[in-house]
User: What shape does this take?
Amino acid sequence: MYKLLKILVALSLFVFVISCATKPAQLSFSQYRIENPKQVDTPILNWLSVYKDSLGKSMNTVIGFSLYGLTKKQPESGLGNFMADAMKSMAEKKFNTKVDAAFVNYGGIRSYLPKGDITVGKMYELMPFDNLIVLQTVSGKDLQLFLNLVAGRNGWPVSTGLTFAIKDKQAVNILIDGKPIREDEKYTIANSDYVANGGDNAEMLKKLPQLNKFYIFRDALIEYTKQQTNLGKTIDCKPENRVVYAQ
Assistant: This one.
């Protein structure tokens, strides 16, 4: 009996010690006001200012002009047409091949182009992602599936060379260079690497090989804008019934 009592006492002490050791520590906190620092590291600020000034000058560089300004809208808009045409034009130049159509993911357009001067900074606001332009050769069947996806999203910007209508969330009356789409035909399309890799549910494109020259879409927009400006043109694209809702 005495041994049993010693064992019970020992167990009780053990449990007590363990419970004390594992007892959560009490927490406390204090509030601090964030104010302007009293001491400034001048050498560091001077070093950073060189890059800040350089970046500021680059972002404020005027590369184009718009009489009316461009905003995005579905199923088609002047802004979307400008961006898709820029992708197609610069892709043909960069890859040295004919492109049947180019597409811009509507959700990836994050800003607008204002009336007046267009700066490099505005292009960064418009397309803040470092998406690359890639080319893919697709069958008419896969292109139909992709266009059905686009139609189901109420339309994305498409370049010259392609028109279609949206009916019951499907793409109908598809014309490529003025000719009806054919399932057994092969077409060269330009897209962002995000979409070509299956982004935004474009699974039908994910399986297809890509041509990639690591050309950033935003750089293409900047280069295309400069090109149009050098030709004496303003950045004022308009809807052209490339994508419409079927009557």
The CA atoms of residues 32 and 38 lie 15 Å apart. The helical segments are 2-21, 42-59, 78-95, 120-126, 140-152, 193-196, 203-206, 217-230. The first strand starts at residue 62 and ends at 66.
